[in-house]
Specification:
single chain; 370 residues; alpha/beta; Rossmann fold; Glutathione S-transferase Yfyf (Class Pi), Chain A, domain 2; 2 domains; six-stranded mixed sheet; 12 helices; 15 strands; globular
């Protein structure tokens, strides 16, 4: 899967921008705040319908304008799809081949991306919510069933939390309805637990070898950490475990007014040499570990969807030495389209540059280097 063309209208600092990409490595060079990251952001929005950066959707529209538009041509094997997203002050409209798409699940299956940004250090350093969101984002791209189940789970969870508050304040309320909601929640939770575990195990098969190639260090692994002890991920056994846990936690949940058990409280850890990287690793090690994680998702995407995602790398070189930079670029290879940003080409090997397509970004203007 590749993105061959990108057209922007009134997006961020671009009034108009038309780009044609190489199917291999594309490098955008420019000073900070020149607009490099805006290009990666536009591609990610085209894939996922939302930005990975903080801020309102209104901030995506160029100043003094009323709407922004992102168009892209996606090619996969012998097929071509034209994707477009129009963002206004009040709504967002997405289309595939000119047809409006109402369900997000029907849209995001068309274009897969793996994104690495400087903020991804928070994947290790930040709260469990950041890691859960990452899992949901990646699994939702490659599995429509996962996206649908996750959405259904969240709806049931919201209703269950609201009814827990009613039960606490109204002693004549019927607990039977809560039991029905709990059983429905368990049904969705089992599938989410199983898919997350399977997905992380697949990434774990590749992450250490990639980390070794980048850093020459080994023994990196992922550890899935549900918020309850799970003895078996087999469907019926897991359902029974959850039923027992909910029964045991009923009074705590009643007083808390919220659901205390379930995949909405999951976590996973990066373990290097049997130590939690959140506590014991340097910032450089953490960055390399998250990058190894992102690269390790690529074969998993291929397995699930039959095609490689587009790799978006924003400022991957800061805090990495020359050897690590070129090992990363060498590792990416020719069998995947990559689009990356940097402020400096000096530390990239001549061999890599000779095979890459380079674009220079200056104050909202982008020119392809010859």
């Amino acid at each position: 899967m590749i993105i061959s063309k990108l057209n922007l209208t009134n997006f961020r600092n671009y009034a108009t921008l038309n780009l044609t990409f190489s199917p291999h490595m594309n490098i955008f060079i420019g000073n900070n705040a020149a607009g490099k990251t805006n290009i990666l952001e536009a591609i990610s929005i085209l894939a996922l319908t939302k930005s990975y950066r903080n801020g309102t959707e209104l901030s995506l529209i160029k100043e003094t304008k009323h709407k922004a538009k992102i168009n892209g041509v996606i090619k996969e094997k012998n097929s071509r799809k034209d994707l477009s997203i129009e963002i206004t002050e009040k709504q967002k409209e997405v289309k595939v081949n000119g047809k409006n798409i109402s369900r997000i699940a029907d849209y995001i299956k068309n274009f897969h991306v793996v994104i690495f940004t400087p903020d991804d250090l928070e994947v290790i350093k930040g709260s469990p919510n950041i890691r859960r969101n990452l899992l949901n984002l990646e699994l939702s791209q490659i599995s429509q069933k996962y996206l649908a189940t996750s959405n259904e789970y969240n709806k049931i969870l919201k209703t269950r939390n609201e009814y827990l508050k009613i039960l606490f304040s109204n002693h004549i309320a019927d607990k039977t309805y809560l039991d029905i909601l709990t059983e429905k929640l368990i049904e969705k939770a089992v599938y989410i637990y199983q898919e997350r575990k399977k997905y992380l195990e697949k990434i774990d098969q590749n992450i250490d070898s990639i980390f070794l190639n980048i850093t020459k260090e080994s023994s990196l692994q992922l550890k899935y950490v549900p918020n309850i002890e799970i003895e078996s991920f087999e469907e019926e056994q897991l359902k029974e475990q959850l039923r027992k846990s909910f029964k045991k936690s009923y009074h705590r949940e009643l007083h808390a007014g919220m659901t205390l058990i379930g995949p909405h409280r999951d976590d996973f850890l990066f373990i290097l040499k049997n130590k939690d990287m959140k506590i014991y690793a340097s910032q450089g090690q953490q960055k390399s570990a998250v990058l190894a994680y992102k690269l390790a998702t690529i074969p998993v995407f291929k397995e699930y969807s039959g095609t490689a995602p587009v790799l978006l790398l924003d400022d991957i070189f800061s805090e990495l030495d020359l050897k690590k930079r070129n090992r990363i670029l060498k590792y990416i290879g020719e069998d995947i389209q990559s689009i990356l940003t940097t402020t400096d080409l000096k530390n990239i090997s001549k061999k890599v540059l000779a095979e890459a397509t380079v674009f220079e970004v200056k104050n909202g203007n982008v020119e392809r280097s010859l």
